[in-house]
Amino acid sequence: MSNISLEEEKDGITIEGNEVGNENEAFKGYRYTWERGKGTEKWIEIKLDRALAYSSFLRTFTEVKLFNLEISTSDHSPLFLEPVRVNADFSVRRFKFENAWLREPMCQQLVKEVWQEHQDKSFQSKLLECLTVLSKWGKEITGCFKSRISQSKKVMKMLKGRRDQNSVQLYQKESENLTEAYCQQEVFWRQRSKQLWLREGDQNSRFFHASAKSRRKVNQIDVLPDRTGCTVGWGSSLEETMVEYFVELFKASNTDWSEVMMLVVRHM
């Protein structure tokens, strides 16, 4: 079909930056956007055309889709970018322990107090009590990074030029508070982005924030290949294809239980 043998060459040149549709769930339609020599020995198809967007655009339109419209009088397929903005979900969120809390001595103290106060209760009840206490306390820690950072900077700016011992000590203390707020903010967003391979001290909150946003995308299946290799979608036997696959996967065939039964201990 093509004189280009390598898949990475057929997919085209990778462009550095925020490419729209470089993930399977974001790009819809035929995989190649340019062709030449159709029906000949030199027939070539390449994913040549791309769409790029700023990070701010992708954060706003988290479910953006890029469609390959395929049919065209040109050798290039027209692309259609559909920006989809997902409304905020105001449903009740499940409790999540924040790693940033571990940097606060008060966290361990709260857990210890709850455990001692409810000694007569079950383990599960103690956990639920800890959940309630930590949720309320944690909002003050992880919910006000910006205000804590802003306040520390404001105080440090006010004390910057002072030479008296008290002002110097206050400045150093506020500098420690600022550093701690930055560290907690970094841990907070790294936990959400799951970029755990990054080193401690990489204070790149914008990167963590973007990674966390991308994880919130709802994974969905639009098309799948059936048993014959043909692509099917919703309303065109996709449901049947999925059921058929798992039925076949878990169906027992030519099963030999002899080795298993030999290991079963017989009781008289």
Explain what you see.
This is Endonuclease/exonuclease/phosphatase. The chain is built from nine helices and nine strands. A hairpin with a 7-residue loop joins β3 and β4. The protein has helices at 7-10, 55-60, 105-117, 123-142, 145-159, 165-193, 205-215, 238-250, 258-262; strands spanning 19-20, 27-28, 34-36, 44-46, 51-52, 65-68, 79-82, 223-225, 231-233. Residues 1-17 and 197-201 have low confidence and may be disordered. It has a three-stranded mixed β-sheet with strand order 2-6-7, with no helix packed on it. A two-stranded antiparallel ribbon has the order 1-5. Strands 3-4 form a two-stranded antiparallel ribbon. It is mostly helical and 268 residues long.
List keywords for this structure.
mainly alpha, two-stranded antiparallel ribbon, 9 helices, 9 strands, flat
Query: Which parts are unreliable, with pLDDT below 50 for 5 consecutive residues or more?
Result: 1-17, 197-201
Measured distance between first and last alpha carbons: 68 Å
Oligomer: single chain
Percent range of helical residues: 40-55%
The total beta strand count reads: 9
How much is the average pLDDT? 75
Question: So what's the overall shape?
Answer: flat
Largest sheet: 3 strands, mixed
Quote the beta fraction: 5-15%
How many helices does DSSP assign? Answer: 9
Q: Give me the secondary-structure category.
A: mainly alpha
Radius of gyration: 29 Å
In order across it, which strands form the biggest sheet? 2-6-7
* Helix and strand element order: HEEEEEHEEHHHHHEEHH
